[in-house]
Amino acid sequence: MERETTFVHLTDLHIGRPGYEDPHLFSDTTATLETILEMVATISPKPSFIVASGDLTNRGDIESFGELKRIMGALDIPVLYALGNHDTREGFYEGFLEQGEHSSAPYFHDRVIDGVHVIALDSSIPGQIGGNIEPEQFAWLEQVIVTNPGLPKLIVSHHAPAIGNENEFAPWRSIRVEDTQRLADILKGRNVVGLLSGHVHYDRVSVWHGIPVVIGMGQHAATDILQKDVLRMVNGASFAIGTIRDSGLTVSFVPLPSDRAELNRYPLDFLRKLNEGETLAAE
Q1: What is the dotted CATH code of the domain comprising 4-275?
Q2: Cβ count within 10 A of residue 61
Q3: Which of 116, 122, 186, 223 could serve as a FRET partner for 269 with CA atoms 20 to 30 Å apart?
Q4: Cβ–Cβ under 8 Å, residues 50 and 33
Q5: Phi, psi angle pair for 113, to nearest 5°
């Protein structure tokens, strides 16, 4: 009989600091996450694990990571985390893991759960919006990708690989082109059933060198993809339920009800400046 492993994909949780009025937090992300976790508890069969693919917090501070830890602490399902551009390594290590000694190191790791080899990368660049993969991660990935050769592999990265020419007009949207190519070379022929990402705030599926790349909308706000000259954010949130079989990956998106009301607009020049490091990405 064909084996099936069910999991949940969360992304862009953007949890805020309790009691702090954050002008760049456009929805009640704590309430949204709690609602989603109530929905996750009803899934049958019970998911084997949850992936949270970055932008776990909105500002990356220790207190926000402490709030995230409080919310997720009630779960009886393993959760695998990756960091995004709104997160900080210092805040994550100290506020969530309570480990100060690795505070500036990229956070990458792997784990085998219910017959699936999950590999999480840290695509964040401190102080910028766009993503990359540092040389030490590539060296590590080359070693771990060849382990557990009989198992399907699921890659997690907050930023998705660059698809087509999107990196030319919006370099903040993805992993930079040279890192995308190296990642493709390493993953080729390694039984990678999917790559889970977030960052751009809309649900999207691409096939990249034969690998399904699944991007989730997340729990903060949704990008209006019909607007091309400005980044228009509207009400919207979703999560995804994934199933891995011998035949491959299936992903179903679960949108939350929304009126699609406008929350904010970002000029593209502003985003370009952020990506060049002129301002912290979380500001």
Answers
A1: 3.60.21.10
A2: 20
A3: 122
A4: no
A5: -135, 125
The predicted-structure confidence for 244-258, as pLDDT tens digits, reads as follows 999 999 999 999 999
Q: Give me 165's structure tokens.
A: 């020419």
Q: Is the pTM of this model over 0.85?
A: yes
- What is residue 93's three-state secondary structure? helix
Is residue 162 within a helix (H) or strand (E), and if so which, with residue range?
none
Residue 51 CA neighbour count, 13 Å, CB half: 34
CB atoms within 10 A of CB 82: 29
| Sign of the C-alpha dihedral computed for residues 260, 229, 22 and 37 taken in this order | positive
Cβ partners under 8 Å of residue 212, min gap 6: 193, 194, 195, 205, 206, 248, 249, 251
Strand extents, DSSP E, the chain:
4-10, 49-53, 79-82, 109-113, 116-120, 153-156, 192-197, 204-208, 211-215, 222-223, 230-234, 238-245, 248-255, 262-267
Q: How many residues does the chain have?
A: 283
> Omega of the bond prior to 257 within 30 degrees of 0, cis?
no
Question: Which two structure tokens, joined as six digits, stand for 95?
Answer: 């506020």
95-138 per-position pLDDT tens digit = 999 987 778 899 999 999 999 999 999 999 998 899 999 999 99
What one-letter code names the amino acid at 103? S
Pinpoint the alpha helices (H) of the chain.
Answer: 29-40, 62-72, 89-91, 135-144, 166-169, 177-187, 268-275
What SS3 class is residue 173?
Answer: helix
**CA distance readout (Å), 132 to 176, 194, 228:** 6, 19, 24
Query: CA-to-CA distance for 112 and 250, rounded, in angstroms?
Result: 19
Quote the Cα angle for 170-174-175, to 5°.
Answer: 125
